[in-house]
Each structure stands twice: as structure tokens, then as C-alpha cells.
Write a structure and sequence with these properties.
The chain is mainly beta and 123 residues long. 0% of the residues lie in helices and 48% in strands. Strands 2, 4, 5, 6, 9, 10 and 11 form a 7-stranded mixed beta sheet that branches. Strands 1-3-8-7 form a 4-stranded antiparallel beta sheet, with no helix packed on it. Strand 7 and strand 8 form a beta hairpin.
Amino acid sequence: QLQLVESGGGLVQPGGSLRLSCAASGFTLDNYAIGWFRQAPGKEHEGVSCIMRSDSRIYYRDSMKGRFTISRDNAKNTVYLQMNSLEPEDTGVYYCAARDYGCMRSSAFYPYWGQGTQVTVSS
């Protein structure tokens, strides 16, 4: 059974850092495009970053460029999202999602989802 589990969220002050993990079981992550999405209260899913199969291409939302880094550890079957210089606007539930083909901007194209991890940026 294909499963994704996120971890690493928490409460952090503005300017701080967190590293989120997305661990997969039941399939090989490197064969899939993995996207990170976030959802703020009352808002829809928003794309944060995506890494394509075999790390062939990486995408970031403009507001995350230079602050967030997505990476993959195939030995651990895990994708990471390193988040630096966090801002209150980054608060939300962060989800990782997988799809068979390339990265897509819309969350609707990802059939496999984790349960999410809460990130709160506040002083």
C-alpha cells in the first residue's frame, strides 16, 4: 500500500528554520514527482515546491525561492523540504504528494497524499 508520512513541523519564530520530511512506504519515491503543498486556514492548497523523478527538474513558488530547498534521499526513500527565513505568512499545514509523471502546479493532479504536518511561524 502506497503511503506518505510527513514530519518535522512545529512552532518557530520568524526568521527561523525547519526541515520537513516526507517518508514513503510501499513504493520508490525516486520514480515519482513529489510536490510539497501548504494550506493556510480557510485557503486552498498552495504549491510550494516540486522535485521530478530522478531529480531531473526542481520547481519553487516564487515567494519561496532562495528560502526553501527541496531534496531527496533515495537510500531513505524520503524527500525533504528545508525551510529557512520563515515568515508568519508561511504558517499552514504542509503536505507532500506524489504523482507518476512530471510536476504539476495544481494539487488536483496528485493522487497520493500524506496526512500533513503543521508549521506555525509566530513570535
